């Protein structure tokens, strides 16, 4: 009986529980998937970071995992050198889940997305939280400095192929959903607070609040 059949027999009942089970189901890694991973920001990967206006920052800590959006004009993640990235932490809700995690566990991952481009770029490394006065000033926008800047030491960089983006129709205009088809932010707050928060008032104030507190 070949390895695929053995793996299928082990896993057909449900849970895949071992590395061997995974290997039997998925087979060998294709050579290009190995070649594309490097331990620094290679010149061919630099343009992806410089063109990305959006990234997802992943962290882990005692309280669990966190994945949070980060966005600004393209190039907002600054390439200091081929092993160092600088990421400003813009104004938010002050939960600072990702920053709390980094204090406990410096490992981070970034997923860069570029509108209209199928490939994404993945960066792994470790981060430290910086509040140097000159560094904060470098990332000021409209006179507003970030509270902190992440200094990320890169350990791994590789691109992800376009299959997931294509399957999702992510950049296809026909896939866009009208915001009114989903619960408004005020509706969510009203439901979760059992009406302690006035959802209608929250929705009315939200556009101005967001516009006035971007930075």
Automatic annotation (TrEMBL):
Q: Which species is this UniProt entry from?
A: Diploscapter pachys
Instruction: List the NCBIfam families.
Output: PPOX_FMN_DR2398
Give the matching PANTHER family.
Answer: FAD-BINDING, PUTATIVE (AFU_ORTHOLOGUE AFUA_6G07600)-RELATED
Outline the extent of the Pyridoxamine 5'-phosphate oxidase N-terminal domain.
43-161
Q: Which InterPro entries match?
A: Pyridox_Oxase_FMN-dep, Pyridox_Oxase_N, Split_barrel_FMN-bd
Classification lineage: Eukaryota, Metazoa, Ecdysozoa, Nematoda, Chromadorea
Name listed for the protein in its UniProt record: Pyridoxamine 5'-phosphate oxidase N-terminal domain-containing protein
Matching entries from SUPFAM superfamilies are given as:
FMN-binding split barrel
